[in-house]
């Protein structure tokens, strides 16, 4: 295919998508889009009247963001209600929980970035620590290998649960969803959904 035919193919692909899928791809899966593809997606989003914010979300995944703009998204996340307890009394942050559960030859290792208020983050860290300490070891060999690693991760991430500023886990969380945060920065309800997942 020559480049013109390629672009025609790209255009048809986006034209065939449902609104829902077009929004999802633009806000979560647009990293690495060429400028030509971005123009095609932008035109399709505009044609359907899906909102300029969706185009902003796509662009945010394809350009370096200034430190100030990125901090603003982090602060926006911090100002939301805690997805675990609903409180807005304390600014939110994030933690990494690592949980190991073993059943002799089967070892499950779950890592999760969780956004919540400091109290709920501590609860999540403690639960992961306790579960892993009690149930992690009983697997051969992975229980024995993964349990100390997970315990260390939980101890380490717990240390920044009560940081006064945006911690690195919340930065990582926002960075991985920068298109969504940019697209929905004026939509609190949608942001609440994003941090609850
Ligand atoms: Zn909470």
Features:
197 residues; two-stranded antiparallel sheet; binds zinc ion; 2 strands; mainly alpha; globular; 10 helices
Question: What this model shows, in words?
Answer:
This protein has 2 domains: 3-60, no CATH class; 84-176, no CATH class. It contains 10 helices and 2 strands; from the N terminus they run αααααββααααα. The chain has helices at residues 3-16, 19-28, 35-47, 52-60, 67-78, 118-135, 142-158, 168-176, 178-183, 188-196; strands spanning 93-103, 106-116. The chain has a two-stranded antiparallel sheet. A hairpin with a 2-residue loop joins β1 (93-103) and β2. The radius of gyration is 21 Å and the shape is globular. The model has no long low-confidence stretch (mean pLDDT 95). The site of zinc ion has 8 residues, from α6.
Topology:
Layout: H1 3-16, H2 19-28, H3 35-47, H4 52-60, H5 67-78, E1 93-103, E2 106-116, H6 118-135, H7 142-158, H8 168-176, H9 178-183, H10 188-196
Antiparallel strand pairs: 1-2
Overall shape: it is globular
Instruction: Give average pLDDT, whole number.
Output: 95
Bound molecules: zinc ion
**Tally of separate helices:** 10
Along the chain, the helix and strand elements come as: HHHHHEEHHHHH
Rg computed from alpha carbons, rounded to a whole number of angstroms:
21 Å
| Widest sheet: strand ordering | 1-2
The class by helix and strand makeup works out as: mainly alpha
Looking at the chains present, what oligomeric state does this protein adopt? single chain
Low-confidence segments, ≥5 residues, pLDDT <50? none
Q: How much helicity do the residues have?
A: 55-70%
């Amino acid at each position: 295919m020559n480049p013109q035919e390629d672009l025609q193919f790209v255009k048809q692909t986006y034209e065939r998508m449902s609104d829902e899928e077009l929004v999802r791809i633009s806000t979560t899966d647009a990293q690495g889009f060429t400028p030509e593809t971005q123009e095609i997606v932008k035109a399709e989003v505009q044609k359907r009247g899906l909102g300029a914010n969706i185009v902003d979300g796509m662009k945010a995944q394809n350009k370096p963001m200034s430190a100030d703009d990125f901090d603003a998204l982090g602060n926006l996340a911090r100002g939301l209600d805690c997805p675990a307890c609903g409180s807005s009394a304390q600014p939110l942050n994030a933690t990494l929980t690592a949980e190991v559960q073993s059943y002799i030859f089967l070892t499950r290792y779950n890592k999760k970035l969780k956004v919540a208020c400091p109290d709920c983050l501590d609860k999540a860290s403690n639960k992961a620590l306790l579960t892993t300490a009690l149930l992690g070891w009983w697997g051969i060999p992975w229980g024995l290998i993964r349990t100390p690693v997970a315990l260390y991760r939980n101890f380490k991430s717990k240390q920044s649960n009560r940081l006064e500023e945006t911690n690195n886990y919340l930065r990582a969380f926002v960075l991985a969803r920068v298109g969504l945060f940019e697209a929905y920065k004026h939509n609190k309800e949608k942001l609440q959904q994003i941090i609850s997942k």
